[in-house]
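Subject: for your reference before the review

Hello V.,

The reviewers asked for a structural picture of the protein, and I figured it would be easier to keep everything in one thread rather than splitting it across files. Below is the amino acid sequence we used in the manuscript, unchanged from the supplementary table.
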Amino acid sequence: MAVDPASKKSKTEMKIGTHSGTFHADEALAVFMLKLLPRFKNSTVVRSRVPDVLEECDIIVDVSGKYDGTKHFDHHQREFVDTFSPEYKTKLSSAGLVFKHFGKEILSEQLNVPVEDASIPLLYEKVYAGMIEAIDGNDNGQSAYPDEIKPAYQTKAITLPGIVAGLNPNWNDDNNDEVLDSKFQVASALMGSVFVDIVKYYGKAWLPARDLVKDALEKCTEYDADGRIVVFDKFVSWKSHLYELEAELGIEGRSIYVLYSDGKGWRVQAVSLDPDSFKSRLPLPEPWRGVRDQALSDLTGIEGGVFVHASGFIGGNATREGALKMAQKALAMQ
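And here is what came back from the structure prediction:
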């Protein structure tokens, strides 16, 4: 007997299940991430709280009270305590669960590189820490700050979870299932667009910059015998890599000044104590601070002086050679 095409389609069509009613950022993102995979690309999203309806789905997120790593990806059960890895303390939400199990495959698809590529584990960790963990923490009520620290102002409405929450109908609006399902699609697309942008940033900008920073660190002794001056022949986003690579290469705290072109001249920037600090490991010399142009050249004895910031965290010279001399002389003076 011939099989009706419509019947055949219904049997092979994949379904992603999640809960109905009010939606949140974690399952909105979880559903979007699943649909980035070829096998779920054209899936129907089923929003329900009826167990039998959900069990007909191929995968279920954020509902069912079960987590098995294959079909069920819920985190609400009392005994659930899973984190991304032993190094993390933030409990996973449905977004974290989906990323933990499918993240490497998703990254491979989005960046068009084999899942076995050496970059995938690095990006897998970076994307989780850079976005997904915050969604997990928010959904599970885990603050990023100690309880004793009180915010100076409210940010809830401008966070991604806050914006997604605001997409839910108001209590006095029409909030039937059709409206909620439609709004959920908007929320999922919003979360997904941010996720895709972050993946592309880490894969196509952050990762290439890492290789350039590592190369520059390995050439530091060309400019200073102790390797304290890092030189980039073109501007590169170096701050997010330098500290991690210093640790990886066993040279923590070694880099003192970073040189790079600003497109017109050259900058000498003092490396901060850590990525979040405003204090430098070694600011440019105090007598130079706040001095500009010819007065700076006269003071330092180096032609092409442009400026030194009043705090000493950065200075400038018209040429690469002049900026390098400034960094070398600053080291010799302190």
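For the response letter, the relevant points are probably these. Residues 177-218 form the longest helix (42 residues). Confidence is low (pLDDT under 50) at residues 1-11.

Happy to draft the paragraph if you're swamped.

O.
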